[in-house]
Amino acid sequence: MNHSTFPLIPVTLLTGFLGSGKTTVLNHLVRQPELADALVIINEFGEISLDHLLFTHSAENLVMEMSSGCLCCTIRGDLVKTLSDMTWRFSRNGQRQFNRVVIETTGLADPAPIVHTLMTHPQVVNRYRLDGIVTTLDLATGNATLNRHVEAVRQAAIADCLLLTKADMVDAKTRNALLRRLDAINPAAPRWEVRHGEIAAAKVLDLGLFSTEGKAPDVERWLREEAYTDDTHHRGKEVGNAHDHHYEDEHGHHHGHDEQEHEAHHHHHDVNRHDDHIRAFCFAVDEPIPEDLLAAWLEVLMSFVGENILRVKGILNIEGSDQPVVIHGVQHIFHPPATLPAWPSADRRSRLVFITRDVSRQNIEDTFRAFRNVLPQAREAAA
Ligand SMILES: Nc1nc2c(ncn2[C@@H]2O[C@H](COP(=O)(O)OP(=O)(O)OP(=O)(O)O)[C@@H](O)[C@H]2O)c(=O)[nH]1
Predict the structure, then answer these.
(1) Whose CA is nearest to atom 15 of ligand 1?
(2) Residue minimizing CA distance to atom 14 of ligand 1
(3) Rounded (5°) CA angle 328-331-332
(4) Which of 172, 193, 322, 201 is nearest to 261 (CA)?
(5) 24 in helix, strand or coil?
(6) Which of 184, 225, 265, 270 has a CA between 20 and 30 Å from the CA of residue 126?
(7) How far is the CA of 95 from the centre of ligand 1 (A)?
(8) Residue partners of 222: CB distance under 8 A and separation at least 6
(9) Bias regions of kind Basic and acidic residues — which residues (predicted)?
């Protein structure tokens, strides 16, 4: 955990495929009081940049554009520089003028490299923290986009929150097919239906482990292990309405699934017509894990299949420690682990949620067991 004198500035990454409605959403977000003091960084790819023409921000927002290349490849260095310069450029009398950052990526970007920069670059991590990845997905064309573009699948898989846009343009059948598909790609992220960009800022902010309210970290909300229903078989009990689907229309009220639909969607988990090769599951370990076992296992796992581990989040019971450790990784890159002051509940098992591509739960479990079995010999050899 970072204990720097100044609170870390939360950064929201807004991603989503080309034309999926990012700018429309952003236009609504920046008008809301929660984002009155936000710094907005817009990344446009290529020479023809239209977003700045469409983007009508309120006078309070500070808008930066970075259009020299795609944020995910060529200008990560620029992002670091922009973020580290910001505090000075936008400060008055030694006080910075923004309390949040929102970065809109290009539609084609694989968000993972940007997330890596935000999670690990020394100049960034000492001032900023990734609050959440918000992904827009067009309800009407989302299925086709997911079929054609693996970037869109990745964007949906690593999201902390999914904004299902253009809700006014979709019929029930198309919508339900997309929802079922998302159950496999990313069962845990809250989903909100959005029309013409209308979404309450509070729904897309404070998605991370630490909130701006300064309250104790809400591990359960962050991990949402209960959403990984795949795990029900392992625990031998039914989790039930594990999904917390939120459907928001322009009046802001909820549309729950009716019973029948809910049933249907549970049973469709494994019979997805489109196999996006994405697996989402929770892996739990009852016994405290020796630190060297964890380090060796994760290192090998990441070096062999790191690219295909889209996201890992977990709370861990480390042998010899009373305090839980939370870890958070995107592909092979991990956020520095944070030690929490106390366990959030009586459940002290280590729990890791994985979102992977072509890596099964079995692979994860087998490697863990293999490492656990050889640990005594490895220790002996090292001694
Ligand atoms: N009918 C309808 N149109 C929408 C909605 N949201 C966005 N649009 C339209 O969809 C088009 C694309 O929206 P943008 O917000 O520019 O999408 P974007 O993701 O920023 O697009 P890129 O910058 O190209 O990646 C625009 O013409 C919007 O007006 C919606 O909820 N309903």
Answers:
(1) 21
(2) 21
(3) 85
(4) 172
(5) helix
(6) 225
(7) 36
(8) 207, 208, 209, 313, 326
(9) 230-264
- Which residue, judged by its Cα, is nearest atom 11 of ligand 1? 19
Copy the structure tokens of residue 48: 């023809």
CB 208 within 8 A of CB 118: no
- Residue 379 has which token pair? 């220790």
Four-way CATH pick for 278-383: 3.40.50.2300, 3.40.30.10, 3.30.1220.10, 3.40.50.2000: 3.30.1220.10
Residue 196's pLDDT is what?
95
Spell out the domain ranges in the chain.
Answer: 9-223, 278-383
CATH class of the domain at 9-223: alpha beta
Q: Ligand 1: distance of its center to the CA of 37 in Å?
A: 24
State the Cα–Cα distance between residues 2 and 209, nearest whole angstrom. Answer: 12
How would you class 345 by CB atoms within 10 Å of its CB: exposed for 0-12, middle for 13-18, buried for 19 or more?
exposed
H or E segment at 145?
helix 142-148
Output the pLDDT for position 5. 54
- 258 vs 34, 265, 282, 324, CA distance in Å? 33, 11, 26, 38
The structure tokens listed for 211 are 């909130």
Give me ligand 1 centre to Cα 137, in Å: 10
Average pLDDT for runs of 10 along the chain of length 383: 64 92 91 87 52 40 54 60 68 69 79 82 87 95 91 91 95 94 92 96 87 69 76 32 33 34 36 66 92 90 86 92 90 81 91 89 91 84 77
